[in-house]
Design a protein that fits this description.
Length: about 190
């Protein structure tokens, strides 16, 4: 995400520099104007996530740092969100209604057992972004979820998980075989 923004800023700076040096100034393309660079924006509402609000925001930021084709943003006041994030006393879970849309529950049961809140948040958001559980799995795989154990605090997707999300949101919006089923509760 940062590369895209920096590139637009760099292009704008070069256009201004060229005009100051006597060259012809041209409008700098923005990331939004260039369909190949624009990320699909998916909004989330974490107002119901109680004590996990900062973990949800960090989980979204991790996805934004990790992939370019989709950007998770907090929903603007008065707008409907693609993702609703709630806290409850159960186990963490996600209900994906369509790619990039659904509900996430950050369950206190897993937190009480010692699982990392940011990893939980990032993992559950991964389901909404189209990724299935990959259990059992190593700590390096975000979608291995709780099978990596309570000592695992890795909240970042691995290269394969990143590539999968990039594929789903990079112009090919239909999940491939093996992706998270839609309208099915995924309990981690």
């Amino acid at each position: 995400m940062h590369v895209r923004k920096l590139t637009g800023a760099l292009a704008a700076a070069l256009a201004v520099t060229a005009s100051l040096l006597g060259g012809q100034a041209v409008a700098a393309p923005t990331a939004e104007a260039d369909g190949a660079l624009a990320a699909r924006v998916v909004t989330y509402d974490a107002s119901g996530s109680a004590e996990f609000r900062s973990a949800v925001d960090r989980g979204a930021a991790i996805w934004n740092e990790s992939v370019d084709a989709v950007e998770l943003r907090p929903v603007a006041s008065g707008q409907s969100a693609n993702i609703r994030v709630l806290a409850d006393n159960g186990w963490p879970r996600a209900l994906t209604t369509s790619l990039g849309n659904g509900t996430v529950w950050i369950g206190r049961q897993a937190v009480n057992e010692g699982h990392n809140t940011i990893r939980i948040s990032s993992h559950e958001l991964g389901h909404i972004l189209g990724l299935p559980d990959r259990k059992p799995g190593p700590c390096t795989s975000l979608m291995s979820g709780s099978s990596a154990g309570t000592s695992c605090t890795n909240a970042y997707p691995d290269a394969a998980e990143k590539a999968e999300v990039e594929g789903y949101f990079g112009g090919r919006f239909a999940p491939k075989a093996g992706a998270v089923p839609l309208n099915t509760m995924i309990v981690d």
